[in-house]
Amino acid sequence: MTTAAAGASTREWRPDFRLDVAAVLGPLRRGRGDPTWHADGAAIWRTGTTPDGPATLALHRRADGTVVAQAWGPGAAWSLEGIPALLGANDRPEEFVAHHPLVAETAKRMPGLRLGASMRVWDVLVPSVLEQKVTGTEARRSWRELCRRFGDPAPGPAPAGMRVPPSPAQLRAIPDWEWHRAGVDLARRRAILASAAVAHRLEAACELGGNRGRELLRKVPGIGVWTAAEIAQRAWGDPDAVSVGDFHIPSVVGWALLGRPLDDAGMLAELAPYVPQRHRAVRYIEASGFRRPRFGPRFSAKDYRAI
């Protein structure tokens, strides 16, 4: 049901499966200060670009399980149409078979953890590129800077400070010194600008899905295996997109499943029984609460604005 009320378009949708809204939407949040995201006791708010323009979306769940979504902006109707996919209606966790006790226990304990699909490549591509080969602190700082200074204010009565992710045109108009000020080095800047030049074509990756979708993304210079996987996980809920090349994930998988660290090759070998649901297995490991042992100092953040 879609109606208009108080300046907003509203949709009510009741899933026929167990659903943890916060867990499903969590991967779309880029740090605690993400200007495109806000969560309070009443709702989860997020902004995004759409084929029809920017939109603000607010989601809350009633006691009977019904999800109530309100949207504002030119992209409101598009956003509401995508609510089921966003919350994992197209996901098939029942096809997953666990091969490790930790994974099996987490899957049983968290039946509402599904893989959501934003069905929008651009909004997850930019923060994924920003996370290439830098610390999370650096990447999130750059994302905040770009959104706050070049993204539009969130449509509707969004919480103070919320912004829409900058569009391809807005990012292509940023002068070099402003990229530097935002802490984005030349390699990541080039990858984002190359993506912006063909952004409308990259959205087709959501329809292709799987390896074909990831291959389309990798045609852009600067989009490699890791970045394509990070985008696929969020844009179309790819259950098999493994973040090969990640600084942390192989070690976490190794310690969680074997009690020792692994490299990428070892991780892929250990996850082989989960094909075509390897990313889901990793999500369960991450959601299990397991923490690998820490040895030595953490990787130091590098401030590219000072270079």
UniProtKB/TrEMBL annotation:
Q: Which GO terms describe its biological process?
A: base-excision repair, AP site formation; DNA alkylation repair
Gene Ontology terms, MF aspect: alkylated DNA binding; DNA-3-methyladenine glycosylase activity; DNA-7-methylguanine glycosylase activity
Q: What superkingdom heads the lineage?
A: Bacteria
Q: Which residues form the signal peptide?
A: none
Q: Which InterPro entries match?
A: Alkylbase_DNA_Glycosylase/TA (IPR051912), DNA_glycosylase (IPR011257)
Q: Which GO terms describe its cellular component?
A: cytoplasm; protein-DNA complex
Keywords for this protein: DNA damage, DNA repair
List the PANTHER family.
DNA GLYCOSYLASE, DNA-3-METHYLADENINE GLYCOSYLASE
Q: What is this protein called?
A: 3-methyladenine DNA glycosylase/8-oxoguanine DNA glycosylase
Q: Origin organism of this chain?
A: Pseudonocardia hierapolitana
Upper classification of the source organism reads: Bacteria, Bacillati, Actinomycetota, Actinomycetes, Pseudonocardiales
